[in-house]
From TrEMBL:
Protein name per Swiss-Prot or TrEMBL: Peptidase S8/S53 domain-containing protein
GO biological-process terms attached to the record: peptide hormone processing
Superkingdom field: Eukaryota
Alphabetical list of PANTHER family matching this protein: FURIN-LIKE PROTEASE 1, ISOFORMS 1_1-X_2, PROPROTEIN CONVERTASE SUBTILISIN/KEXIN-RELATED
Span list, region Disordered: 58-92
Basic residues bias spans: 78-89
Protein keywords: Hydrolase, Protease, Serine protease
Pfam families recorded: Peptidase_S8, S8_pro-domain
Keyword DNA damage included in the entry's annotation: no
Species this protein is from: Anopheles melas
Family statement drawn from the similarity comment of this UniProt entry: Belongs to the peptidase S8 family.
Record GO terms (molecular function): serine-type endopeptidase activity
Positions of the Peptidase S8/S53 domain: 137-318
Sequence ranges assigned to domain Peptidase S8 pro-domain in this UniProt record: 44-91
């Protein structure tokens, strides 16, 4: 039996993709069936496949009903939906505006500005006592699901892990961001630096877990569909311990959105079977919508039972957004 699944329709874009996803309930996939429907396939995770029709436009204002109906009429297909691009916004930071006394001295130039690690008085993350106990993230592998990662960045190259990295947008092993005139694809590298930038090396900043290994999955620099999210969330789940995502649906106080069927399946597979059965850990930023009176309970990623949602305060202990 074949099961075709796809993403829920997002209202931000009228663009349909030429892609479909199938679940095949047999040990040996029927390649003649794939060929008869004019698709190219890729395995997402166990028994789940990605189909892309070579004779359809990559993006379209309307769905391809004849191809949809052809699939649905096949006795081996339970149901089918086309992929559709979704709005996913990066969740960024605001710079520090005040100075204060540092509890410890590091030679990283940005260390004096990293109040969330060194402010003290209940206004930071209380990690310095953990560092003093030798807890620095050593032995932990983190991957950043975002717009790419500069693997040769001088503050990250020592901790970079190629086995925790992949380019879903281009389907290759190099997560290097593709920069443009707006210089917008640097968010993932910054997020990686917050996690695992090398400490006390006279370069840039220091990561909260500066002993951890870090990789990046480039998946936000293109159409974000259910299959893109699922492939990212399921990447090398027996090697990666923690998946970190600082993005989500629009934080505009009006959008209610969340993971589609495949992304949800990736969460479940990871939690049940990742890390050798201990379960993958999915960390999500709660969002930047405070000033829009946005409620993160309307975000199906931060509100999911499969994720740990992280919020923040400003350096004055106030709502930051």
């Amino acid at each position: 039996m074949l099961e075709i699944v796809s993403v829920e329709i997002s209202k931000f874009s009228p663009s349909f993709a030429s892609e479909t996803n199938l679940r095949i309930g047999v040990d040996i996939p029927d390649f003649m069936f794939w060929f008869s429907h004019g698709h190219i396939s890729m395995e997402i995770f166990h028994e789940h496949y990605h189909f892309e029709h070579s004779r359809l436009h990559k993006r379209s204002l309307s769905p391809s009903k004849p191809h949809q109906q052809r699939l649905e009429s096949d006795r081996r297909v339970r149901w089918a939906k086309q992929q559709r691009a979704r709005s996913r916004q990066k969740r960024d930071f605001r710079p520090l505006t005040k100075s204060y006394q540092l509890p410890i001295q590091l030679n990283d130039p940005k260390w004096p500005e990293m109040w969330y690690l060194n402010r003290g008085n209940g206004l930071d993350m209380n990690v310095i006592p953990a560092w003093k106990e030798g807890v620095t993230g050593k032995g932990v592998v983190v991957t950043i699901l975002d717009d790419g990662l500069e693997s040769d960045h001088p503050d990250l190259e020592h901790n970079y892990d190629p086995y925790a990295s992949y380019d879903v947008n281009s389907s290759d092993n190099d997560p290097m961001p593709h920069y443009d005139l707006t210089d917008s694809n640097r968010h993932g590298t910054r997020c990686a630096g917050e996690v695992a930038a090398t400490a006390n090396n006279s370069k840039c900043a220091v990561g909260i877990a500066y002993g951890a290994k870090v990789g990046g999955v480039r998946m936000l620099d293109g159409d974000v569909t259910d299959i893109v999210e699922a492939r990212s969330l399921g990447h090398n789940s027996q090697h990666i311990d923690i998946y970190s995502a600082s993005w989500g649906p629009d934080d505009d106080g009006k959008t209610v959105d969340g993971p589609g069927e495949l992304a949800t399946r990736a969460f479940i597979e990871g939690v049940r079977n990742g890390r050798g059965g201990k379960g993958s850990i999915f960390i999500w930023a709660s969002g930047n919508g405070g000033r829009e009176h946005d409620n993160c309970n309307c975000d199906g990623y931060t509100n999911s039972i499969w994720t740990l949602s992280i919020s923040s305060t400003s350096q004055e202990g106030q709502v930051p957004w």
